[in-house]
Specification:
136 residues; alpha/beta; D-tyrosyl-trna(Tyr) Deacylase, Chain: A; six-stranded mixed β-sheet; 2 helices
């Protein structure tokens, strides 16, 4: 798993191109304030330990969100952090389980449209712990 977390005072997306067959249709542009945006790449070896990877992902998200004084988290599938890629099905399942755990801990959790290229608009402050990278 590769995890790039960026705290954003504003994060917005606009779906542009559907790239994954079977991805849902009908997504609209959206904008969020005061949110930790997580660029996540699940890797092939992660498929051997869904529960362990999910636990580490959620732990890192909660820690980084706390350091940035937010209870809002955006999950974004970003298959550009490693040469190794998990299947789209695994990544979707991982996201769903992470969302459930985050929401059970009273975090508002969102996802960008899965299977789309997006136009992104981010405003991110430049201070310690606003940008974090983890590999596990």
């Amino acid at each position: 798993m590769k995890l790039l977390m960026i705290y954003c005072t504003r994060f917005a997306y606009n779906p542009t191109v559907k790239v994954l067959e079977g991805a849902n249709d009908g997504y609209e542009p959206a904008s969020f304030d005061n949110i930790l945006t997580a660029f996540i790449q699940a890797e092939e070896q992660d498929e051997e330990d869904l529960k362990g990877v999910e636990k580490k992902l959620v732990k890192n998200l909660k820690w980084a969100a706390g350091k940035n004084n937010t209870k809002r988290v955006m999950l974004h599938s970003f298959a550009h952090l490693s040469d190794s890629k998990a299947s789209p099905e695994f990544t979707a399942e991982l996201f769903q389980k992470a969302i459930e755990r985050m929401e059970n801990a009273e975090y508002k959790t969102f996802t960008t449209p899965f299977g789309y290229f997006l136009d992104l608009d981010m405003q991110a402050p430049g201070y310690s712990l606003a940008r974090l990278f983890k590999s596990f």
